[in-house]
Task: inverse folding
């Protein structure tokens, strides 16, 4: 029972993970454009150095009046010093960064009227966030505000005494203006304009305006693939386990089954997860709750009304067990019902070939084990194939055998399978092998940027061969002195030799694959802000 | 307990996902490096605006409109030009090519800011080539043409730092030069006034006279001839009314000093009739109201560009100058 619950739990978790990963690439997929905005009534809004390009390049800046009121709005881009110089002592607000993914943070020493439209509160913490800014904004006298307010009130024409439009200044490298809405599209300093740039947004009226900055983003879906792999892996693992378990049960039960009725007398027929869940929920069997007549009993009760027999009936189509065919009505195997209940009648068993495993206790039970072994054995084989190529050249067959030891094969597989992992694994790999090996690993990593886990394997085989082309490797781990051959430079240091010799034998094969996955891993880690020491990610 | 394990797993996954969302980007300002006050593109924009303003103002001889892009000596000269043109004379055009071919851009974050522009290549800066001095006096001002001066004959412009980097603006009292930049104009005014008798004559061009000085002395001589042995009287005042408008470091460690001089002339009891055909006197007449009188005064607005060498052993060179009558009145 515990095992079954575990299986169900794993399967459920797998489904959840799959769903989450898919959602991460669909529902939750970040917007292609990063937008952040703030609402303010300040006549001038200035961005602090670095803000323009903080979300990338190019930047699109938009300003519009909240109520759609007409107002001659201006957006200008200039050197940070030019913008600050232009604004001078006039009341203004400074955008110092983002206070969330959708809101700009305003440093507002004088007014305190800005509200990030993203819904998060503005943080007026100039001291904390902008210690480097010595803009006039910081020491803006509060009394400047009223002076600005009075004339500006609803009477722009008369309020202009204090306001001066920045439009048209020679200092701006980019500019946009409009009535009630202005947009500066896709501005990027690029390489021809190095240095610091700031945006100045001017609004002559007291109308509330929303200033928005938008940057294009390269959106990735880093969770999709790993999520699908893990999720589907868990699901299929659970299914597999369930089938297998069931097969075993069936096998053992088979003797107990009453062939005439097709009913299992003491054990439940195969169940879908849904059934199991239903069973759990109901505490008792409630066959109807699943799917019409095609469902099987949820409980172990023999009370099942002839439905249990359906299961065996399924088997017939299966490749393995034609006999138990129960003429009744063709049905899909219990396990297949879970996903596709309505399809049950179709029961073209041939398709679900594997079904034979589950429902047909006899043959399947035996088969299961057989397929199983190959699985574990397979990986090592592949692992060897990948890892050994380099060594094959120099290492005699005998040497090759040695490494088959599990620890090593695993390690070998690491680097080639999923590049991201090689680094952590090496330490464990050398377990069986001579001690010196760890050293080579460590030495090798730096040389290749720590990505080529394949390297370690190379030395191992050669070590045992101790012949011909690879004396260098041996020397590395044992005695540098005897080293001879093509790579005399190698001996002295653990790392040094690797660097020089590595490329020769193992270079081509190892360099390619590992380098590819690694950047990818780095990329999504970076995107998601996962530091390498974040165990949570690695654990999964 | 067991039943809840999937939920727990799900919750953990959600929590993991949530924990993995990164923080919003933070501004990462570029390093604060000295930058030129304008880019090449901005210079083109400025020149275009200047040309446009001149075209409009010239068409209407609008001395107010022209002030939008002219100031200082350039404005004084152009306003005088308008007066002369209004008197029926041809308006001398200010030809400004929009494509700046040689530029010197100040490197500063304060004001005033300066840009020097020539519309021809340095190699060709002989005779007719002019250096335009553009200044932005405060952040909310535009760049305005402060003055222009013709390159002296046989003189080449000093090597300046490339505009992508910008030339350093020096204070008028910059000490690491043989002459204080602030002293250049008064000393030169003294040389113009007193000629070889000036104590500063050695500081400038040695025995050779620059075009500015030679031209001024030729004018004196010409008027002196008119006076002859008569009772006529000629008085000349040369002043440096203000500090240098521009002091820019040159590539060799010297300085480029640009400033203004005012020359005022008074003549009395002179037979002006004989000089009426002289282009300069035509201008004087126009500015004085249309006629020349035997006693009158007129003034010149001078723009002079000096190159101050880094070594004390070399003289200051007058690179470019402009000497234009901008006012006249009968006495």
Result:
């Amino acid at each position: 029972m515990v095992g079954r619950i575990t299986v169900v739990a794993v399967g459920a978790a797998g489904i959840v993970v799959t769903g989450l990963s898919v959602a991460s690439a669909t529902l939750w997929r970040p917007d292609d454009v990063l937008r952040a905005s703030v609402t303010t009534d300040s006549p001038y809004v200035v961005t602090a150095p670095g803000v323009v390009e903080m979300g990338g390049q190019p930047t699109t800046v938009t300003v519009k009046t909240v109520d759609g009121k007409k107002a001659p709005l201006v957006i200008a881009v200039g050197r940070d010093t030019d913008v600050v110089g232009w604004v001078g002592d006039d009341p203004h607000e400074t955008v110092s960064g983002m206070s969330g993914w959708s809101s700009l943070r305003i440093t507002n020493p004088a007014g305190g009227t800005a509200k990030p439209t993203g819904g998060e509160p503005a943080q007026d913490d100039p001291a904390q966030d902008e210690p480097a800014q010595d803009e006039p904004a910081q020491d803006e006298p509060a009394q400047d505000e009223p002076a600005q307010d009075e004339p500006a009130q609803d009477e722009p024409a008369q309020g202009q005494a204090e306001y001066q439009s920045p439009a048209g200044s020679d200092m701006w490298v980019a500019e946009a203006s409009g009535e009630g809405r202005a947009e500066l599209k896709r501005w990027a300093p690029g390489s021809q304009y190095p240095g610091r740039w700031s945006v100045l947004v001017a609004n002559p009226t007291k109308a509330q305006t929303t200033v928005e900055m938008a940057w294009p983003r390269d959106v990735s879906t880093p969770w999709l693939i790993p999520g699908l792999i893990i999720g589907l892996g868990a699901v299929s693992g659970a299914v597999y386990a369930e089938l297998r378990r069931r097969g075993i049960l069936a096998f053992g039960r088979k003797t107990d089954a009453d062939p005439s009725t097709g009913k299992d007398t003491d054990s439940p027929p195969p169940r879908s997860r849904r059934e199991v869940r239903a069973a759990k929920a109901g505490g008792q069997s409630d066959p109807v709750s699943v799917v019409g007549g095609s469902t099987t009993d949820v409980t172990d009760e023999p009370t099942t009304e002839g439905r249990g027999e359906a299961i065996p009936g399924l088997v017939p189509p299966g490749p393995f067990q034609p006999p138990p065919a129960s003429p009744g009505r063709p049905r899909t195997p219990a396990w297949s019902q879970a996903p596709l209940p309505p399809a049950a009648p179709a029961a073209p068993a041939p398709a679900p070939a594997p079904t034979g495993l589950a429902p047909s206790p006899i043959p399947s039970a035996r088969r299961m084990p057989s397929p199983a072994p190959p699985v574990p054995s397979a990986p090592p084989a592949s692992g060897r194939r990948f890892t050994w190529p380099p060594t094959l050249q120099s290492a005699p067959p005998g040497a090759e055998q040695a490494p088959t030891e599990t620890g090593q094969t695993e390690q070998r597989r690491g680097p080639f399978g999923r590049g991201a992992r090689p680094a952590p694994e090496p330490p464990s790999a050398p377990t069986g092998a001579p001690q010196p090996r760890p050293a080579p690993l460590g030495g090798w990593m730096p040389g290749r940027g720590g990505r080529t886990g394949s390297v370690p394997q190379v030395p191992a085989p050669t070590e045992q061969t101790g012949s011909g082309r690879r004396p260098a490797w041996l020397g590395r781990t044992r005695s540098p002195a005897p080293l001879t051959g093509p790579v005399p430079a190698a001996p002295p240091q653990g790392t040094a030799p690797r660097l020089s010799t590595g490329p020769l034998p193992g270079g081509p094969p190892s360099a390619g694959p590992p380098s590819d996955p690694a950047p990818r891993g780095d990329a999504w880690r970076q995107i998601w802000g996962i530091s390498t020491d974040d165990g949570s990610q690695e654990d999964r | 307990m067991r039943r809840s394990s999937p939920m727990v797993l799900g919750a953990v996954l959600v929590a993991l996902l949530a924990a993995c969302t990164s923080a919003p980007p933070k501004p990462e300002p570029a390093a604060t490096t000295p930058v030129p006050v304008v880019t090449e593109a901005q210079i083109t924009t400025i020149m275009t605006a200047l040309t446009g303003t001149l075209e409009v103002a010239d068409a209407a001889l609008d001395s107010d409109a022209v002030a939008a892009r002219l100031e200082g000596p350039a404005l004084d000269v152009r306003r005088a030009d308008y007066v002369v043109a209004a008197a029926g004379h041809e308006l001398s055009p200010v030809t400004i090519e929009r494509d700046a071919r040689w530029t010197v851009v100040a490197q500063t974050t304060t004001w005033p800011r300066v840009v020097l522009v020539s519309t021809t290549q340095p190699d060709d800066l002989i005779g007719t080539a002019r250096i335009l001095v553009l200044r932005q006096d405060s952040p909310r001002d535009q760049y305005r043409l402060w003055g222009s001066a013709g390159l002296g004959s046989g003189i080449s412009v000093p090597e300046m730092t490339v505009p992508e980097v910008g030339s350093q603006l020096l204070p008028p009292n910059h000490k690491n030069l043989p002459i204080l930049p602030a002293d250049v104009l008064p000393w030169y005014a003294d040389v113009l006034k007193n000629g070889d008798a000036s104590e500063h004559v050695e500081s400038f061009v040695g025995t050779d006279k620059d075009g500015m000085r030679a031209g001024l002395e030729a004018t004196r001589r010409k008027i002196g001839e008119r006076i002859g042995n008569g009772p006529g009287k000629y008085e000349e005042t040369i002043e440096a009314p203000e500090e240098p408008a521009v002091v820019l470091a040159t590539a060799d460690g010297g300085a480029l000093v640009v400033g203004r001089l005012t020359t005022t002339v008074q003549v009395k009891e002179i037979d002006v009739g004989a000089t009426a055909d002289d282009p300069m006197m035509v201008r004087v007449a126009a500015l004085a109201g249309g006629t020349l009188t035997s006693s009158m005064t007129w003034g010149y607005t001078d723009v002079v560009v000096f190159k101050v060498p880094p070594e004390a052993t070399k003289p200051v060179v007058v690179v470019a100058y402009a000497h234009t009558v901008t006012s006249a009145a009968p006495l």
Remarks:
- The longest strand of chain A covers residues 33-40.
